[in-house]
Amino acid sequence: MSPRFVAAIDQGTTSSRCMLFDAAGAIVAVAQKEHRQIYPQPGWVEHDADEIWTNVQEVIAGALAKAGASASDIAAVGITNQRETTVVWEKATGKPIAGAIVWQDTRTAKLVGELGGAVGQDRFREACGLPLATYFSGPKIRWLLDNTPGARAAAERGELLFGTIDAWLIWKLTGRHVTDVTNASRSMLMRLDTLAWDDGLLEAIGVPRAMLPEIRPSSEVYGAADGALEGVPVASALGDQQAALFGQTCFSPGEGKCTYGTGSFLLVNTGERPVTSHSGLLTTLGYQIGGQPAIYALEGSIAVAGSLVQWVRDNLGLIATAAEIEPLARSVADNGGCYFVPAFAGLFAPHWRSDARGVIAGLTGYVGKGHIARAVLEAVAWQTREVVDAMAADAGAPLTALKVDGGMTANELLMQFQADVLDAPVVRPAITETTCLGAAYAAGLAVGFWPDTATLKAQWRQDAEWRPAMAAETRDHEYRQWKKAVARTLNWVD
Q1: Model-level pTM?
Q2: According to DSSP H, which parts of 396-471 are helical?
Q3: Which of 108, 173, 403, 466 could form a disulfide with 426 if both were Cys (CB 3.0 to 4.6 A apart)?
Q4: What is the H or E stretch that residue 11 is in?
Q5: How far apart, in whole angstroms, are the C-alpha atoms of residue 316 and residue 397?
Q6: Are 237 and 180 in contact (CB under 8 A)?
C-alpha cells in the first residue's frame, strides 16, 4: 500500500511537535511537548539538546499513535526548527559539550562588538547578508569554543560537530551531518552568492571548518530515519520562518508572510537574486528545491511577540492563560496613552540595537490592567509596521496585503489592529500551522508525494480577512507615539 501521509517535525523555541498531513495538506494528527527554558545568568538562554531529542522521539511516536499509523504509512519526514540556536557535540559520543545557546541569548554582545571593530555591525553584511548581532549562530559557536575547556583544540582536530537544531536532529535520525541553505544562511559563516562556507568569514569569526555540516538544498532526501520512523526518508530542512514562507506557498517574487510566534517574522520572496537591504532588514535564503536555483528573501525579525504575552502571564500575573489577553484588552476602548516596547534582548529589525531594553511609556494614574494588555498586543502590531515600512523602502512599493500565520493569529483584536496600523488587508489561511506544513510540503516534493509547487499553491485556502478601519490621522498619531516610546529604550546598556 502506498504511504498515506507526510510527517513534519517542528522543533521550536518552547516545544517540539510532530504533525502528519495527508495529500490534501490537511492535518491528520498532532503531538506536542514543551521543553525547559534555562536561564543561567541575566541575558543567557539555553536549551538541553538531549532533552529536545528525547521529546522529538516522543512526539513522533505520539503522532503516529494518534493517526493509527506506522512508518510504512509515511512517505517522508521534514524538519523545521528554531533558527540560530547553537549545539556543539562530540562526534564520537553524540554528547553536547554544553547547553544549546538559544537565538535570544545575548552573552555574545561583547564579542560582537569586538568583531565589528572600526567597521561596526555591517562588517560582514556584503558577504553573508547579516549585520553583526547576538542573534546569529557564528558568534555563539566562537563563544562556546572560547569558554569550554579544551573545545577549540578538539574542534580543530575534527572531534566536535556544530549544528543548528535541524542538523542536530538530522544527525540523530540518520547519522549524517548536514544542514540546509536556510539554516546555514543564519550563521554569518556562509556566503550568499556561493551558498558555501567562506574561509574569510570562518577565520574572522574564529570557527574551524572541520566542525561544520555539509550545506544541502532545503528539499532533498538526506538519509533514512531510524527509530519509530525507521526507513522513512528525511527529506527536508527549513528554518521555521522559511518553512512558513513555503507553507504559505509564497513561491513568486513579491509574495510574503508574517508569522506570529515567540517572536514575529516577516519574509518576502525576492526571487533568484539576493536583495541588499538599506533599511535594517536581513538578506537571507528563502528555500532551495533540489537542484533548482536557490530562492532568496528579505526578512524582518522581531524578537518578542507571543513571548510578551507569556511574560505578562508568568512574570506579572495579569492573566492566568495566554488566551485571556484578548478579553482583558477588549475591556478598554484604547491603550490609555500607554505604550509597551518589549526590547528585552535589545531591538531586532529594523533597528538592530543591542543596547536597548524594554520600557512601558506614557503611564499615568488612569492606566489599568486592560490598558497594559492592549499595549502588549499593540506592541506586536507596531513592531510589524516598522518592518513593513522597511520592506516597502527596500522594495520601492507599498504592501498590498499581508498573509499571516502562527498562534497569535487566533487573536482577532490583534489581527484587526494589525490591519488598521498597516492600512492593508490581513489574511489568515485555513491551516495556520504553516511552519509544519512548509516542512511537510518540502519533504513531500522531494519524494514525489506532491508533483510540483503549483499543486501546493492550488491547495491554499483563506480562512479569514481583516480590513483596515482606522482613520488615517489616528493611525499617524499613534505611530508617532510608538516611535517616541521606542526612542526611550535606546542607550540603556553601556
Answers
A1: 0.86
A2: 412-422, 434-447, 453-459
A3: 466
A4: strand 5-11
A5: 41
A6: yes
Q: What is the 3-state secondary structure (H, E, C) of 13-39?
A: CCEEEEEEECCCCCEEEEEEEECCCEC
Q: Which amino acid is at 146?
A: D
For residue 5, give the C-alpha cell. 501521509
Q: Tell how strand 256-260 and strand 402-405 pair up.
A: parallel
Distance CA 284, CA 299 (A): 7
Residues 4, 421: Cα–Cα separation, whole Å: 43
Nearest to 324 by CA among 259, 369, 360: 369
C-alpha cell at 213: 555540516
H or E stretch including 115?
A: helix 109-116
Q: What's the sign of the alpha-carbon dihedral 113, 114, 118, 123? A: negative
Write the burial class of residue 396 (CB in 10 Å: 0-12 exposed, 13-18 middle, 19+ buried): exposed
> Which three cell numbers, joined as nine digits, stand for 57?
522521539
> From CA 391, how far away is CA 424, in angstroms rounded?
14
d(CA 440, CA 19): 9
Give the span between the Cα atoms of 84 and 166, in whole angstroms: 10
Q: In one letter, which amino acid is 410?
A: A
Q: Which three cell numbers stand for residue 340?
A: 509597551
**Are 222 and 235 within 8 A, CB to CB?**
yes
- DSSP conformation letters of 338-363: -EEE--BTBB-TTT-BTT---EEES-
* Digit-coded pLDDT (tens) for 266-316: 998 888 988 888 888 888 999 999 999 999 999 998 989 999 999 999 999
One-letter identity of residue 348: F
